[in-house]
Design brief:
The chain is 71% helix and 0% strand. With 204 residues, the chain is mainly α. Helix 1 crosses helix 2. The longest helix is centred in the middle third of the chain and has 27 residues. The protein is elongated. The chain starts with a helix and ends in a 9-residue tail after the last helix.
Length: 204
């Protein structure tokens, strides 16, 4: 009940304006009663964000379970153009206001809880994928683990920069989402050119 009230207040007035008094009033209890369970609003916000973070972790966990060796060449190439990161972003769109508040106000504790895991899993997913492309001769070049790590980290940073932008405090704007999609397309075409593949799965 306390966390639900806190979430409502955070979304209504923002992190800075949210107070223990307002949260307590919404929950129908005293501010002192909240301190029996939480040390302050930072801890409450961390708990609320953890729920959104779970969605992200579940998505990355399902990604790790993909068996690229069982795919046809066409199916394998289609993964590249399915824009996995964009799909992930769309699944989390309902939580963007919370993510914005987190990136603007977090002391570093919350974001660190899943950033490293996300990047580690994302890089492992990409290494397996690009490795299979190369093994089949669909890609003419094999990317190094360091290159894949840097690409994954850059992609993650790009998403964070977009969400943290002040124009997105009430949700991702159409302009920002368009810019994100364009940036992802540029990244995709760069990878496509570097690996020497085309949409039909043949070498360029």
């Amino acid at each position: 009940m306390i966390l639900k009230s806190a979430r409502d207040i955070f979304l209504e007035v923002g992190y800075q304006e949210a107070s223990m008094r307002k949260i307590a009033a919404r929950a129908g209890i005293t501010a002192g009663a909240i301190y029996k369970y939480f040390s302050g609003k930072e801890e409450m916000f961390g708990e609320i964000f953890a729920e959104s973070g779970k969605k992200l972790m579940e998505i990355t966990r399902s990604m790790m379970g993909m068996d690229f060796t069982a795919m046809t060449d066409e199916e394998l190439v289609n993964v590249l153009y399915s824009r996995v990161s964009v799909q992930t972003f769309n699944l989390l769109e309902g939580d963007m206001k919370l993510f914005h508040m987190l990136l603007k106000n977090d002391s570093g504790k919350c974001i660190e809880q899943f950033r490293d895991i996300y990047i580690e899993r994302g890089a492992a997913f990409a290494m397996n994928y690009y490795g299979e492309l190369y093994r089949r001769g669909i890609a003419c070049k094999k990317l190094s683990a360091k290159t894949v790590y840097m690409l994954t980290r850059s992609e993650f940073s790009m998403v964070c920069e977009m969400i943290a932008d002040e124009s997105c405090r009430d949700g991702i704007t159409v302009e920002m989402k368009t810019a994100f999609m364009e940036a992802m397309d540029i990244l995709l075409h760069g990878i496509e050119a570097e690996l020497g593949i085309d949409k039909t799965g043949g070498k360029k």
